[in-house]
Input
Amino acid sequence: MSKAMHVQKRVQPRGGFVKLLIPIGIVSALVVVELVAAAVLMPTAQQTDAVARELAAARAGKEADNTSELADGVSGEDLREVELGKIPVTRYNPENDTTLNIDLELYAVVLADDEALMKQRLESNASRVKEQIILTLLSSNTADLSDPGLGLIKRRISDKVNRALGRTLVREVLVTKFNFVER
Output
């Protein structure tokens, strides 16, 4: 009996480890191909921002503007800056026992024709606007806050402030002071 088992062991083919490596290699190659395709096809943050602005403008029934034109003042539109205020926010995260302190100063860029209306609506909706800004900051993650341009946060604040004001008045949000500390 033991001789028969001994014979069976000799009959079994070797290379079980190699058979295991082949599917792992194929799956790894597919993952690498997908990662490369995603990296090539994924839009940049600037492209995503431009598409979001076009969609927001289309919703508002206006022609899309270009952020870089606004920043350079090349758009030909007369723009004004209206102070949204200094906003300090502290958030405690019990999951990792850390506290996040955010301190920023914001301005809204509006059309010169809308400046008086912006100030009027901002004055009558100051608490709503401040709440929306705070909620936006509290819902942001560390990666959003670490972005040097703060693009996503600015866009979210712009959308929420416009919603709080009941009309699309804010064309762009400017952050003139930004401190972010996680302890």
Remarks:
- Helices lie at 2-11, 16-41, 45-60, 67-72, 115-124, 126-139, 142-146, 151-165.
- Residues 64-74 have pLDDT under 50 and may be disordered.
